[in-house]
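Most newcomers find our protein records easier to grasp once they have seen one. A learned vocabulary of local backbone shapes supplies the integers on the structure line. An example says more than a description, so a record of this kind follows:
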Amino acid sequence: MSDTILKLQILARAEITLAQIRTQRATGRTVLYAVAMIFGLLALGMFNFAGFHALSPQHGPALAAFYVALADVGVAIIVILAANKIGHREQDERLAREVRDLAYAELNRDVEQVKAELDQIIDDVRGIREGFSSFSGAAMSTIAPLVKMIMGSGKKK
């Protein structure tokens, strides 16, 4: 039974590890998406600022604001690409899945083994019952004439 408990512990640890990996990935992506959104909002603000200044007669400040907006967009794109690549600990996740699947397979094998042992016990009990029934039937067919003889000799006396 301790082997089964060990397998259950391994299964639980594998599931916890998978949950931690998924949580770390989701947290990292969320933070980076939030940073990308901030830069995206800054870019939108700078595009507005650039558009305003582009319409003004002097193109100096507008062009500067436009370049800042392009830089903000570039940073936002880089952060989004980084967010998509974060958490690529696929080897760790694959290993945790393999351990979990192995634990499931081993537990399933243990259950099948217990089931086979119970079936064997049931068959053994049936065999004992059939043996006892055939023994008692044979014993009765042997003892019955003896009992009749004893009863018959008791009546003669």
